[in-house]
Structures are given as structure tokens and as C-alpha cells.
Amino acid sequence: MGILLQTIVAGLLKGGLYALIGIGMTLIMGVMGIINLAHGQMMMVAMYIAYVLNTMGVDPYFSLLVAMPTLFLLGVLIQKYLLNPLIKVDTILPENQVLMTVGIGMVLTEVIRFIFKSDYKYVTTSYSSATFFLGGISFNVPLTIAFFIALAFTAAMFWFLIKTDLGRSIRATAQDKDAATLMGINTGRITVVTMGLGAALVAAAGCLLAPVYYIFPDLGGPFTAKAFVITILGGLGSTVGAILGGITLGMAESLGATYLGMEYEDIVGLAIFVAVLLFLPGGFKRLTKV
Amino acid sequence: MAYFKVEKLVKYFGGLAAVNGVSFEVQKGEIFGIIGPNGCGKTTTFNMISGVFPPTSGKVIYQGKEIQGMKSHKICHLGVGRTFQVVKPLGRMSVLDNVTAAAFSRVNTIREAREVAEKTIDFCGLAPVADVLAKALPIAGRKRLEITRAMATRPDLLLLDETAAGLNPTELLEAIELIRKIRGNGTTVIIIEHIMHLIMTLSDRIHAINFGQSVAEGTPKEVAANPQVIEAYLGKDYA
Amino acid sequence: MKKTPVAAIVAVAALALLPLVLADNYFLHLLILFLIWVIIGSSWNIMAGYTGQVSFGHAAFFGTGAYTAGLFVMHGGFSAWWGMAFGGVAAMLLGLPFGAICFPLRGAYFALASLALNLILMHLATIAERFTGGMQGIMIMPTFVSKVPYYYITLGMAVATLVVVQSIIRSKWGYYFVSIREDQDAAESLGIDTNRYKNVSLAVSAFFTGTAGALYMNYMGFIDPHVVFSLHDYSVMAILVAIVGGVGTIYGPAVGAFIMVGLQELFRSGFFGLFKYLGDRTGSETFTQAMEVVQHAHVLVFGILVVVVILFLPNGIVGDWGKIRKSVFRSKPAA
Ligand SMILES: Nc1ncnc2c1ncn2[C@@H]1O[C@H](COP(=O)(O)OP(=O)(O)OP(=O)(O)O)[C@@H](O)[C@H]1O
Ligand SMILES: [Mg+2]
Hints:
The structure holds three protein chains of three kinds.
Chain A: H1 2-32, H2 39-55, H3 60-88, H4 96-116, E1 121-122, E2 131-134, E3 137-140, H5 141-163, H6 165-175, H7 177-182, H8 187-209, E4 214-215, H9 220-234, H10 239-259, H11 265-279, H12 285-288
Antiparallel strand pairs in A: 1-4, 2-3
Helix pairs in contact in A: 1-5, 1-6, 1-8, 1-9, 1-10, 2-3, 2-4, 2-8, 2-9, 3-4, 3-8, 5-6, 5-8, 6-8, 9-10, 9-11, 10-11
Chain B: E1 4-13, E2 16-26, E3 31-35, H1 42-49, E4 57-62, E5 65-66, H2 72-78, E6 80-82, H3 95-103, H4 110-124, H5 139-152, E7 157-161, H6 169-184, E8 188-192, H7 196-202, E9 205-210, E10 213-218, H8 220-225, H9 227-234
Parallel strand pairs in B: 3-8, 3-9, 6-7, 7-8
Antiparallel strand pairs in B: 1-2, 1-4, 4-5, 9-10
Helix pairs in contact in B: 3-4, 3-5, 4-5
Chain C: H1 6-21, H2 25-50, H3 59-74, H4 82-102, H5 109-127, H6 129-132, E1 138-139, H7 148-169, H8 172-182, H9 184-189, H10 194-220, E2 222-223, H11 225-228, H12 231-245, H13 252-268, H14 270-282, H15 285-296, H16 298-312, H17 316-319, H18 321-328
Antiparallel strand pairs in C: 1-2
Helix pairs in contact in C: 1-7, 2-7, 2-8, 2-10, 2-12, 2-13, 3-4, 3-5, 3-10, 4-10, 7-10, 8-10, 12-13, 12-16, 14-15
The structure holds adenosine-5'-triphosphate and magnesium ion.
């Protein structure tokens, strides 16, 4: 019983971070209609920013303030100069935007490898492995902090999407691009902003993860895979779904690692993906309808 | 037994009824017109008949067989062909290849399919542009390609969805002539059209829909004089 | 859709005669890799380029074929050549239920699910140690010492693949595939069972890719999960081979395979040993370092290539040949 609770808590904390990763991805999915297969790689870049700043003595939570704007800019540039031009290109493959993100992911990974080599880096903080106990269950301090910051970002994102004009334009574009264009929304600009936001959110997740994870160039791929499992699980384009999906994935991984063995941690997500495809195509969105 | 009929067709999208009780019967060999204001559910009716999606409720009966809910490709093989209001050319294929692809629904070898395609293209008057890529055709050509392609599947019943919209007066005359020729060939035609002149001249009978429901049916003259139809088209004040 | 060009026949004849003149092992090795990529690229192309169903995980089929061959040896001590008969079938048996599930879900589902399938198989092959040898992989004794027999077998298979692909494309199936790619609703209305023909296309594609995998096992003598189920080295490379050469063209993947295998080797070998040679000659450290950089840069170059090709040559060298000719020979009028 103790182990189960412990596992669930660990999964929940991780799930909060996954939700943050998933929201960025699902926003992009909703507005652009594409899966961003460079999502995890963007997070990886943010983690290296946190790492570099950490070697200069900056706390990873403060590196958020650098990593998020930087990644926002990176997202904007990618969307503006690499993805949006493709809309006008006449080509046989409809997925060429997705292919492009694959290429971008490869470039990001290799550029980072070029600069930092392949070996593991650690962001060391005084609290990296600190824990506190609550009712007999241990809470990892950085993960708990990360969970609450992730929660705050998620809430802020919702406020932004619902209350601000820009946020409403983003939602309108996600619902019906043509209608949004007719209503006078500059959808080109919206896609650029959305990609920036998605990148900034995943950058936040990266910085929050940095104190508890080892950093290496190839970690992007697995996280891209997680992000898309979350998105599929939540239903393509659904923000609420992404949160549910993130938490579900975090829990499932945690349970899988505890009860099946560590080597099953990664395959659990993929198994969920298959299950969703088989039994709930459309994901949680089908159930929640948002 | 009616050649073709739909019974109390209903289609909901989410909570909204796009079609809410449409029933009509079509006799073999006639040209049957469907009219109604924008968004009244005409295309949705065609989509249910041709199997793009199943009706929420109601029946589609073709030659005594219930076909509602069947897949599009099956319905095509039963002999029901259709065109799309928003044209769907196979863009990177030539006109000839577009029609050849359709012809394969009845024959298996490429030689036979080519032959059927060429004949159909001649019949429909697209021969001069047979080698042009479909995406390079102007709108009139695309509309005609829709008809030609559907004809190459050798339909017994042909559904035409606004194939005359956007045509100039000369093209319009050609379209009328073509539809007559198709009927002359023994094909039954159901046609949706906003252009009153065209539908009035062509149709043997007309069925009017408003807000997803059948509101009137009869010869062109009868329907044109029907107060509900006038109201639907021109607003209450004119009725 | 056109006749087989004379150039293709000449190329095959030249390739067939090549070992008689030039029996250099290194050279033959590169040609074998090139031919394997012709098979994989053409297979990917028939599904993605012609039918419009993009797979991000073709390594799933390649690896399945390779493991089928390897497992024949590992369990029961059969010859790995049995894999040539069954590797393709195994890949097809994997593909069919997969397609049956994913194709009815339109949109990006298939592409994403193929990626997931790829990852799942990689994990499974790693975890199921007893059955697959896990991370250790499978090692077999090569049948031939010389590369010449492998070369001819691969050449035969590549030609067979191209011939089959070409005849499919020129038949009813080909028309159906392209119709599905161009517009699914229209295709359905013309009597095409789109789900079924997507599956047919997937089956053909998986079959040839699986056979290529079995061939790889026989030729290289060693596989492990991260080699044959590699996203970058197979799934992405398959896409690159096809798009660089030209998706939806018969010979595009062959052209793409030539360029990509050439490029890969160019970087792997440090410009075919140029840097090493210069380093040895001048005794300068710089060249040795430059070589290391170049050797590590090949994935980076591939990434950049994806970006550049999609931006500027989305239909590949064969597909955009008109555009290329115009910009290179701008001054001359079209011949
Ligand atoms: N796939 C769909 N999903 C949701 N709503 C739909 C769908 N197809 C049609 N509708 C809605 O159903 C209603 C009827 O549309 P339909 O296209 O059948 O009208 P129509 O009579 O063909 O109009 P028009 O004369 O403009 O072609 C419209 O309000 C439309 O927005
Ligand atoms: Mg309509």
C-alpha cells in the first residue's frame, strides 16, 4: 500500500511536467494541424541553456527567465522561416511540415552534440536530491516545486487562451482556420506566436526537469515520443486532454517502472498509445469534448 | 416498387439537424431536381445517399435494396454515381488518368479502362483537354470533369450537385445539353441546382427542401407557384 | 505513364558487368548498400509517394525482416537465407493488422502510429532477450567470403523491386494508389475501397522492406535492436532517399539512394580519406581534427538536407528536374 501511494505520488509529480510538455505540443497541433516532432529536442536545448547558466552559478529556476524567451524566439524563427513557407509549396507529400520538424529536430540535436559532446551533463543544485516526507510518503523537492510551477504555467496558459484577444484568436484558428481568416485574424501571425508559445512552455518543462535529470543530446527523441503520446492520449488539439494525458502518462510510467521493472518505463507510454488507438481513437477529447 | 427513394432522412451534426425529414421518390429515367436555399441540407442529403456518412435515421432504397450506411465505394459499384459541389479533381493526374481511374470500377485491365475513359471523355466533350493536368483546368473544366468521371463508373443513377454553378451562359447551355444527353442514354439523374432557369428547363419533377425538411414537390410549374417555396427563396413578404 | 527509359536498362547492364572489371571490396560494399537503399526507398515511395500514406517508422518493417532472418539461425539453426523467403512475409503480417487499425483514422494518425510501431519494436527486441538476444543482437557466419555473390543477389532484388513497383504503378492498383493520394473522398466516390488499397500498398511496401532487412542480416552478419530499428539510420533515411530523389516517381528513390549513400560515405570516411591523406602528408593536427568533425557531422548534414530539400526541392531531383534544369541552364532555351 505504501509503495503504491508512493508510486502514484511520483507519477503525479512527473505528470505535472508532462502536462506542460503536452500543452505546448497540443497547441501547435491544434493551430497548425501538425505534430511537432522537434518538441523534445526544443526541450533539450532549453535544458542545455539551464546547464550552461548553472555552470555560471545560476539556479535552474532562474534560468527559466532566459530559456523561455530564447526558445520562444527559436520557435518563432522556425515557424516563420521554415514551416510557414511550406504552406505555399506545391508538393506531393501532405506531411512535409512534419518532415521538416524531423529535420529541425536532427539539426538541433547535432548542433548541441557538436558544442557539448555526447556525454551526460548534470545540473547540480543543493536540493537536487532533497526530499521531504508527508504522511510517510517521500516527496522529491525539485519535482514538487516543478509540479507547482507547471501547474501555475498551465493555469496562466488557460487564462491567456480564454481571456486575452490573442488567446481567443489562437483558439479560433485552432477550431477553424478558414473561418478565422474570414474573421480577419492574421493566421500566419497566429501560427508563429503559437509555435513560440509551445516552445517556451516546453522550455519551462526542460528547466524544471534539469535538476533531476541527466542531460544529453539524444534525450530529445524520447521526449518527443512522450509528447506525442500525451497529445494522442488527450485528443489532438485538446488542452484539457493534454493535461489529463500528461498525468496519465506520468502515472502509468511510474506504475510500470515499479511493478514491471525499470526497462518497461518507456514501453508503457507506447503501449498506452496503441491502446488509445485501438479503443479510444480521438483520445480523452472524445470523452471531455474540449 | 419505386426505382429510388429516400424515407424520412435525418442527419445531425453535433446537436444541429442539417437534414430533418427528407423523403422523395424518383422514377427510372427521369431528371429529378432538388432545390432549396443555401444550407438547407441538399448536399448533406446527397452525402447520405452516396455513403459519405450514414444518416442519423431514415432509409435510402435503391432498386429495392436498402443502401443507407453502406460505404461510398460499394454504392458506386451498385450503380450510383455522384459529383461534388466543391469539386475534387485528382489534381496531379491528367484528365484522361482521372477518368481512367474511375473506369476501373467496371473493368480490370488498363486497356479496357483506357477505352472506356476515352469514350466517356468524347461523350462529355473533354477530349481537347484529355492530357491536361486536372489541377490546371478552369472551373468549367473541373465541373465537367466531375461529371465525366462519374459517368465513367457507368452509373444507373447519377447525382449532380451544382455542376452548373460558376459557368458562363455558353458553358451553361453546354451543361444543359450534356445532362440531357446523359438522360437520353438511360441514366436517371438527380440534380441540385440554384440556377432556376436551368433546373426549371431540365427537370421532370422538382423537390423543394427548406431547413432540412421537404416542403414541396411537383412539376416545375407547380413548384414555382408554391407559396412555401416562394417564401423560402424570397422571404416572407413576397409570399 | 511512360515506358522504361533506355537509361535504366543501360544502368542495370552496367551494374551487372561492373564486378568483372572492378572487383574492389570497398567499392562493392558501397554498391550493395546503394542497392539495398534502392529497395527500401522504392518501397517507402510506393506507399508514401504514390498512395500518400507517409510512414515515419519504416525501420519497423526493415527490422522485422532482419530479425526474421536472424531468428531462423538463432532458434533451430536454419540458414539465414530462409529469411529472404519469410522476412518479407513477416513484415507484411506485421503491416496488415497495423494498417487495418490506423488507416480508417484519417489524417496524421498513420504517420504517427508508424513511428510508435517502430519504437515499440525496438523496445520489444531489446526486452525480449531470450528470444532476440536483446542488446547483444544476433551474429551469424556469412555464407560467402567474396562480396560478389551478395552483390548479384542484391542487384537482382533491387531490379525485381523496381520492376514490380513499376508494373504495379502502371496497373489498376497504381491508378487507385494515386487517386487515394490525390483525394480520398473522390476516390471513394469512384468505387475505390480506399482502406483496402491503402493496405495493399502497405503490404507491398512492407514486403520489400522486410526482404531488404533479411538481405541485410545475411550480408552484414550482425544486427541489434538499435541498428535495424534505428529511427535515424532507417526510418528517416528511407524518407530522405525518396524525397531527395523524388517522391511519386519510379526512379527517384534510386537517384536518392545513390546520393544519400554517397553522402553518408563521404562523411563517414572523411571525404574518402582526403583529410587523413592530407594529415599524413603534412603531419598537421588540423586535418586529423577536421576529419573527426566531418565524421561526426553526417547526421547534422542529413538534418540540414531534410530542411533544405523540403524547402527548395520538395519533389526531389527527379520530380523537380524541370525546375533544376531551368535554374542551372537558365541561359539556354529548352532543348
Ligand atoms: N460535415 C459537416 N459537419 C458539420 N456540419 C455540416 C457538415 N456538412 C454540412 N453541415 C451543415 O449542415 C447544413 C446543411 O449543409 P448542406 O451543405 O447540406 O447545405 P446545401 O443545401 O447543400 O447548401 P448550398 O446550397 O449552400 O450548397 C449547413 O448548416 C452546414 O453548415
Ligand atoms: Mg450544397
